[in-house]
Design brief:
D-Maltodextrin-Binding Protein, domain 2; alpha/beta; five-stranded mixed β-sheet; single chain; 2 domains; disordered N terminus
Amino acid sequence: MIDRWLGVWAVLLAAAGLFFGGCAATPQDGPTDVLRVGVAPTGPPLIYKEGFELKGLEVDMARRLAQALDKRPQFKQYEFADLIKALRRGEIDIIMAGMSVTPARSRRIAFASPYLTVGQMALCRADERDQFSTTGSILLTRGRVGAEKGTTGQLFVLQSFPYAEKLQYNSTAAAVGALKLGSIDLVITDGPYAYWFAKQDAPQIVIPTYTTFTSEFLAWGVNKNNTALLDEVNRVLAEWRQSGALDDMVDQWMQKIE
């Protein structure tokens, strides 16, 4: 069940306002038989690339959502920080990229009903695990802390690491690469991503405390002017919850990080 992965956390309601600007635009008319899905394939197991192929929970859900809407999915790739701008320009119909619901984002786009809850976690090198054995030693570090730009992980670093040198990267994978090379000391990222990289890069990269520092709802983003699509997406999500299909999809991908 999804609750197995969620935990009992409060919703993160930080006043973000750091990543997005500009005015909303009316969505451009796209092909009626196509669902244009905006993705940033940098966050396994939710969304990533293996070779040239898109994979992950979001990819599976996008294909099933398009089928339920009698459409075919068309994936359009962006950097995570550019997804909302692309949606508001009408280049895509929906964002399916492991995006957290925040007040700042909610002012610019409409979110469908959340499908998963996650929290920010830390990654460090295994040989430095003892230096980050408590929450305080992580948050009060004077070291170098990295996160993917435009994410709530970056926002958390900016707000909660008063003494650290803060660095941003185009992807979580790039941040983890810098961690492995010793260019930074910690990476802050969503829990599923942290578990994924800790498993893939074991024993070199580890999660030092298994503490979740935040609680965030993940949801899909739709242009505020496209209420018809938002209603249809929420209808499909409700059907998936009732049938157990949403649990099954989440479990299938979460089991890959056990």
